[in-house]
């Protein structure tokens, strides 16, 4: 195996290189990549130009895929690869993609463990906008003062798709607004996720609506402060996409969001997800 990792920032991100492209698709490489994802949160493979079959192979080698596809998408490829696009010919209801303009974690409102990792490859890169930002909620938690860590222990937040889409609710056509906002489950999750490894991350983002047992204004203000803390430059990075780039991130310890872009740019990403093995447990 001849793959190499170079840190991008102190607390988040590594860039991956390889001596032979075939080295990326071996079981040994998959183990090394998974370990590095857990350590560095975000891995960037510049211009590796994966096919769907190659992306699915990496996904399977790293732990097995889970399907998180859009129910309204008119896919023209493998159903296990979700096409992230505002192209109305493929995605006639773009609200869920528009919702990704705001900090979130994938799979927080579904009735299964959240995906361990999300894998995204760039097929069409826009000239303007469309970058993806990542924020490590592992590093953000570890950077909190001890008294704030203590104050957060035991708190639970209520998560919903309605909350995550509230910033764009007025832009959803009224004829199907309630149907869109009502998808998914309403879930309670601890704000601090203690993983089986003993490491701790925060479960935050726009799905988090309020804090259980706390006045709504105070709870929402706390959740926004935690988002802002996690998104500070020390704990976050922005990736400017080039066609062929491939990025993997630890969905259990990172928020992400897309920088807004116009649908006319044709931005197209292909997404797969690695099945999670841990429920978010207090």
Automatic annotation (TrEMBL):
One Pfam short name: TauD
Keyword Cell inner membrane: no
InterPro entries: TauD-like_sf (IPR042098), TauD/TfdA-like (IPR003819), TfdA_dioxygenase (IPR051178)
Alphabetical list of SUPFAM superfamilies matching this protein: Clavaminate synthase-like
Gene Ontology MF annotations: 2-oxoglutarate-dependent dioxygenase activity; metal ion binding
Domain TauD/TfdA-like positions: 20-272
Keywords: Dioxygenase, Iron, Metal-binding, Oxidoreductase
The family this protein is said to belong to: Belongs to the TfdA dioxygenase family.
The name this protein goes by in its record: Alpha-ketoglutarate-dependent taurine dioxygenase
Gene source species: Novosphingobium chloroacetimidivorans
